[in-house]
Design the sequence.
């Protein structure tokens, strides 16, 4: 199961429709909680994450956020019209 939010992507394994539980505990940052918890992996990459290349051409994530294109088009109808035109041009 994957949940892509604004700033993180959370990934969990399901076994026959049930969430896998980590019996020995989980890590929060660098801390071991030693508390039984859902076995979920979170990474700092979400729908609002700013992706860019650094000076050495390495992919970097954030820390800045961006406005999702779908929201931008919703807020500004002219963006939606321009995107439709661009799509027709690119895939003609």
Sequence:
């Amino acid at each position: 199961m994957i949940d892509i939010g604004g700033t993180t992507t959370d990934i969990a394994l399901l076994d026959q429709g049930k969430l896998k539980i980590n019996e020995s505990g989980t890590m929060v940052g660098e801390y071991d909680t030693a508390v039984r918890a859902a076995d979920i992996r979170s990474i700092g990459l979400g729908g609002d994450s700013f992706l860019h290349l650094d000076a050495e051409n390495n992919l970097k994530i954030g820390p800045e956020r961006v406005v999702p294109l779908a929201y931008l088009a919703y807020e500004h109808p002219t963006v939606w019209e321009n995107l439709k035109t661009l799509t027709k041009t690119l895939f003609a």
In short: The radius of gyration is 19 Å.
